[in-house]
Design a protein that fits this description.
With about 230 residues, the protein is an alpha/beta fold. It is about 25% helix and about 10% strand. It has helices at about 10-15, 40, 55-60, 90-100, 135, 165-175, 185-190, 215-220, and strands at about 20-25, 50, 70, 110-115, 150. A three-stranded parallel β-sheet has the order 2-1-3, covered by helices on one side. The protein has a two-stranded antiparallel ribbon with strand order 4-5. Helix 2 (about 40) links the parallel strand 1 and strand 2. The longest helix has 13 residues, at about 90-100. It is globular, with a radius of gyration of 18 Å. It starts with 8 loop residues before the first helix and ends in an 11-residue tail after the last helix. The model has no long low-confidence stretch (mean pLDDT about 85).
């Protein structure tokens, strides 16, 4: 206690021999999901939890990127309302540019998502979705909408998706890419984000863009790793 104990996507990746890492500022950060799963927190897989988000920039440069990466920002770069220093867009851009200018670009999909970016209100009522009562509780409903940006040489350009996606859609996308079974949770009911891609088209070249902070700032600047809601 208070850890949960259930199968996770890292477990499926392990069984399939797919490497993964979870880059995060702190072992106890609110957003450090593996910390909430007992067998991940106290098992051998904890070695894949990297307690420095900027390490992903080094791993990309050294051609040491795993098959699947989760990248969690420091709270000041999180865009979390009331808790940020405005550096979130530049931090995200540094990761995107590192991938774009590497050999990984041709076969990488980057999903940029927020948990409550822009506030805690949505003028569109979320749909009620009846889920399996054993796993979800009856009468499950989506929360308010949050942004999702898909970056890939195969992503549709100037495209706004009108499909109903959820965080389980990212899981399902990964499961389909690596031919993994379903976890039977959010991924089982979610779509796979396929409407956002044109996989039959030729991959587009990456185009660089300017940001006020470059990767060296993220690699060298020290910020406290605290939770966004503690201040």
């Amino acid at each position: 206690y208070p850890c949960f104990e259930h199968p996770t996507l890292p477990d499926l990746l392990d069984k399939a021999g797919v490497s993964w890492r979870y880059y995060t500022p702190s072992a106890t950060l609110l957003w450090t999901a593996p910390n909430a799963i007992s067998h991940l927190r106290f098992g051998a897989d904890w070695k894949n939890v990297i307690l420095q988000p900027a390490q992903i920039l080094t791993d990309i440069a050294q051609n040491n990127l795993p098959g699947v990466s989760w990248v969690i920002p420091k709270w000041v770069e999180s865009d979390h309302a009331g808790s940020n220093n405005g550096g979130g867009p530049a931090w995200v851009a540094s990761v995107v540019k590192a991938i774009g200018n590497s050999s990984y670009w041709a076969n990488t999909a980057i999903f940029i998502a927020w948990d409550d970016w822009g506030g805690w209100y949505d003028h569109v009522a979320p749909p009620q979705v009846l889920k399996d009562c054993q796993n979800w509780g009856c009468g499950f409903a989506y929360g308010f909408r949050v942004p999702l940006i898909v970056v890939s040489p195969y992503a549709k350009q100037k495209y706004v998706s009108h499909a109903t996606h959820d965080f389980g859609s990212i899981l399902k996308f990964i499961e389909e890419v690596y031919n993994l079974p379903s976890l039977g949770y959010a991924d089982a009911y979610a779509d796979d984000l396929s409407d956002c891609f044109q996989f039959q088209a030729a991959p587009r070249k990456f185009r660089n863009f300017h940001t006020p902070r470059d990767a060296s700032y993220s690699l060298n600047h020290i910020e406290p790793p605290g939770d966004p809601d503690n201040d």
